[in-house]
Amino acid sequence: MSTTTGPEVFGQTRGMGELIDVADKETVLAPFGTELAALGRERPEIVALTADMGRYSDILPFRDEHPDRFFNVGMAEQNLVATAAGLAKVGKIAYCTTYSVFVTRRAYDFVAIACAHSMANVKIFAGMPGLMNGYGATHQATEDLNMMRGIADLTIIDPCDAVELRQVTRAVADIPGTVYVRLLRGKVPVELPDDYEFIPGVAAPLRSGDGSVGIVSTGYMTGRALDAARAASEQGIEASVLHVPTIKPFDTAGVLEFAGRHDRLVVAENHKRTGGLATLVTEAMFDAGLLRPMVRVGLDDGFFECGSQEYLEATYGVDLPRIVRAVVDGV
Amino acid sequence: MPTTLSPPATADVAALRDHAHELRRLMMTMTRGKGEGYIAQGLGIADCLAALYFHELRHDPANPDDPDRDRFLLSTGHYSIAMYAVLAAAGYLEEDELPTYGLNGSRLPMSTFDVTPGIEIVGGSLGQGLGQAVGMALGLRIDGSDARVFCEFSDGELDEGSTWEALMGGATFGVDNLVALVDCNGIQADGPVTVAIEPVAEKLTAFGWDTREVDGNDMQALTDALAASRERDGRPKAIVLRTTPGHGIPSIVARPRAHFVRVGDDEWAGFMDELEENR
Q1: pTM check: above 0.90
Q2: How close, in Å, is residue B136 to chain A by CA atoms?
Q3: Residue A4: what pLDDT?
Q4: Under CATH, which architecture does the B13-277 domain have?
Q5: What is the CATH number of the domain that holds A252?
Q6: Residue A197 placed within a domain
Q7: In this model, does residue A286 exceed pLDDT 80?
Q8: A231 and A171, same structural domain?
Q9: Do A109 and B131 touch (CB under 8 A)?
Q10: Which CDD domains match (chain A) (predicted)?
């Protein structure tokens, strides 16, 4: 049985963008918004904005506690980012939310120039990153990491679970400049232990195997990587797991150290196989002259259709069985 | 409503005209070093900048990061030549740095970046200024500051949808500490403004902005409009400036393509003579 903690009023996000494999896991409802509301009590310089996605980005707890510091700009993502940049440039820390597709594809120039170029304290929490809903390509940000890593001076974080997302919500306030966070919303599972500590820019070893197979993963795929490692263990294969929450700046040293200790690698991400984590791992290893067999678990190139989340994940190869096959069979 | 803002109740219009003339002289001097630039727009906006920096703005060149300062945002980064002129005249820059305009390694690039003292935002990617101005005005209001935000943008930037997003945002949030200065000079990169943006003042009024329309090269009208825009009535302010590209130098006004002007060595002295004759 699953158990969920969190504010009862925030069941509204159900229906789109919720994580599907949480049936047997502890979950937390709206960890981002509740943590941000609490942080807002401590830090009056924090303001929050949304572009008509308050209900769907879990940010309403902040609005309810701090209505004078909350602004809904309507369906206007460029203006969301520009307004946040302006607030930051008079001393605020501006958290803003919309869907990942809209802030990346539509407001890219604003993130780059109005925010990152000036190291503006804008913290973008982007809902439904990667393949996280069945609404088709309009709502599936399957290339967001690839896009955003192209922006200089931008920090990119892909949290794993509710434990990490809460810590990231706080940590980004003290990370200088503009930060892009892949937001997990609704009922967010707990995958990491209570003593887990998110350290910006540092990859976290979560499981130690026997050196045969190492899984490198980010975002909610780390939860699946842990599940896959447990499943593989029942078949006699002891895989390690390295979680890479910060995509940029990339922990090259940490990844190389991990890769060097394993005979072969699996990279798992909720993103296309190109331009995201696997590309970063590959670049780091190639530059260092460290070569290992690697299976990249991620999405094909293409625009994906509408359908159930289960159907899409199985069809495009990012579900749990796909990771298990990569770990056990190396294909 | 009484105001605590710093500008004097009446403007010394004659002195401000002299300042504007000095800005034009500095711009032409910069153009000579580079041989080219967005000089026509700069000459057109010179009166507005003089009115702001020598009358309307509360600012301190010795303390450009003063949190209580009024902010001036130049959205049209390519008007940089005019900004550097006014920043030098007001004391943010040394005048002997101006000849580096547009040269390699200069702090005075062809388009504005916020590394230059006195420049608040990265301009140049058009359509990004007004939204940031709305955010600044909101932030200052949250802090209880009586500082104001002035944002210049151009008629060409009314092509950008983001400008209209910001116009709606400013009205929605009622930022009456924000003054939009819309430089309607009628030109953009490919020539005359082609998209149906007129009537600009009526549109801004319909969008909820307390709007005035003036000859942007008439110092008396400019200072009157700025004074009227000090009112805090819950509405953002807009001044539509009808400016003439190249104002002050008739030979530049007469050029059919004024967006980016090249000034030959043989032309420069004649332009300076025209500037003196028309002051």
Answers
A1: yes
A2: 4
A3: 63
A4: 3-Layer(aba) Sandwich (3.40)
A5: 3.40.50.920
A6: no
A7: yes
A8: no
A9: no
A10: TPP_PYR_DXS_TK_like
**Which positions in chain A touch B125 (Cβ < 8 Å)?**
109, 113-114
ipTM summary value:
0.95
B contacts of A92 (beta carbons < 8 Å): 139, 142
Residues of chain B with pLDDT under 70: 1-6
* A105 lies in some domain: yes
Which tokens go with B142? 């949250």
Residues A139 and A247 in one domain: no
Question: Has residue A195 been placed in a domain?
Answer: no
Same domain, A30 and A100: yes
Last residue of a domain, one of A129, A158, A189: A189
8 Å CB contact of A86 and B138? yes
Asked if residue A226 is part of any domain, the answer here is yes
- In order, the DSSP letters of chain B are ------S-SS--HHHHHHHHHHHHHHHHHHHHHHSEESHHHHHHHHHHHHHIIIII----TT-TT-TTSPEEEE--GGGHHHHHHHHHHHTSS-GGGGGGTTSTT-SS-SS--TTSTT--S---STT-HHHHHHHHHHHHHHTT----EEEEEESGGGGSHHHHHHHHHHHHHT-TTEEEEEEE-SEETTEE--S----HHHHHHHTT-EEEEEETT-HHHHHHHHHHTT--SSS-EEEEEE--TTTT-HHHHT-S--SSEE--HHHHHHHHHHHHHT-
Range of the domain at A71: 12-189
Q: For the segment B22-38, what is each residue's pLDDT rounded down to a tens digit?
A: 999 999 998 887 777 78
Domain residues of chain B, as ranges?
13-277
